[in-house]
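Try this one yourself first.
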């Protein structure tokens, strides 16, 4: 696996050094460059041989890395400043093409454009980020990780790439690495609410709900209008039994976005658990106002009405919930229980 990952990074890097058509002003320098490239190819072929021992592989890798550095140095000498600028301009064109393709939903074309951009400017950190996004959309996750890692290798303060790494590691259930990457994102940019939002979700996955709630609270401090963070904070607070605090932040969510149905549903659920059925019913109805026939809210409305002794109305809401496959069994059970109570 380690060898495979090395080639994801090293083979790409090596190929970038030989794609340029270099116009040598110094024939001897060009000859040195060609020899180094040929030698690097030879070493690379040896590294790819089956049955190679680890000490042999490590020695060859060290030689390969040294050759790559020498090739970079020679290439820089061979290219004039004008050539460098020309290459960078071409890189930007391909980078912008990649962004356009990505916006149009064509990840395959985007990937090709980003790779072209990298060929023309191996230090264009944004192109590695874009390449990572395209690879993620194509579900080539290990390659995407390698591309994001290359971006932060070039620019260790590239917060956007650190955040992308954190999200992808979380998606892959690699929560320790996700946390490390997210902390790096925050270190690079502590003013970005998006970094703290991701941090909260990572702590949720790690079942560290107090820390998750604190991270989401930081989000709302940085961006008081980000209603989803209030909702996420409420969910985390509910997990650790802080019901009243959870209700308070759910209320803040709907203050910011009146039609945010999920927070109404979550309020209804907590209020029913607390026995505050009248308030729960109001919250459930508000949810259904903005999300018609939403089964979870319909069930909470039915539960509140049942506890308030309003059985006919409760059955009506349970029947709405029963239309959902996920809620059918629970809703029908409550309907049957009410019928037994009524002697039917």
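Now uncover the answer:
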């Amino acid at each position: 696996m380690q060898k495979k990952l090395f080639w994801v990074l090293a083979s790409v890097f090596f190929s970038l050094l030989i794609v340029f058509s270099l116009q040598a002003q110094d024939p001897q320098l060009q000859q040195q460059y060609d020899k180094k490239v040929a030698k690097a190819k030879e070493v690379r072929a040896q590294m790819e041989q089956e049955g190679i021992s680890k000490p042999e592989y490590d020695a060859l890798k060290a030689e390969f890395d040294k050759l790559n550095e020498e090739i970079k140095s020679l290439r820089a000498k061979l290219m004039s400043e004008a050539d460098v600028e020309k290459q960078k301009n071409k890189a930007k064109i391909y980078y912008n093409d990649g962004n356009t393709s990505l916006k149009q939903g064509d990840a395959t074309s985007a990937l090709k454009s980003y790779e072209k951009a990298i060929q023309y400017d191996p230090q264009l950190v944004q192109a590695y980020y874009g390449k990572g996004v395209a690879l993620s959309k194509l579900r080539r996750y290990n390659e995407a990780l390698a591309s994001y890692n290359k971006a932060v290798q070039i620019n260790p303060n590239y917060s956007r790439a650190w955040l992308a790494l954190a999200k992808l590691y979380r998606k892959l259930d690699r929560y320790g690495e996700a946390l490390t990457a997210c902390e790096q994102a925050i270190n690079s940019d502590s003013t970005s609410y998006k970094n703290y939002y991701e941090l909260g979700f990572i702590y949720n996955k790690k079942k560290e709900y107090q820390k998750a709630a604190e991270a989401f609270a930081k989000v709302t401090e940085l961006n008081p209008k980000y209603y989803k963070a209030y909702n996420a904070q409420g969910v985390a607070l509910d997990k650790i039994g802080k019901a009243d605090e959870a209700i308070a932040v759910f209320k803040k969510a709907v203050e910011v976005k009146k039609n945010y149905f999920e927070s109404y549903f979550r309020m209804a659920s907590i209020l029913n658990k607390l026995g505050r059925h009248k308030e729960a019913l109001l919250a459930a109805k508000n949810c259904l106002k903005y999300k018609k026939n939403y089964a979870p809210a319909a069930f909470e409305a039915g539960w509140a009405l049942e506890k308030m002794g309003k059985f006919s109305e409760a059955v009506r809401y349970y029947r709405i919930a029963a239309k959902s496959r996920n809620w059918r069994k629970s809703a029908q059970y409550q309907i049957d229980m009410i019928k037994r109570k009524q002697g039917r």
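Discussion: Confidence is low (pLDDT under 50) at residues 4-9, 12-24. The chain has four domains: 1-79, 81-155, 157-239, 259-344.
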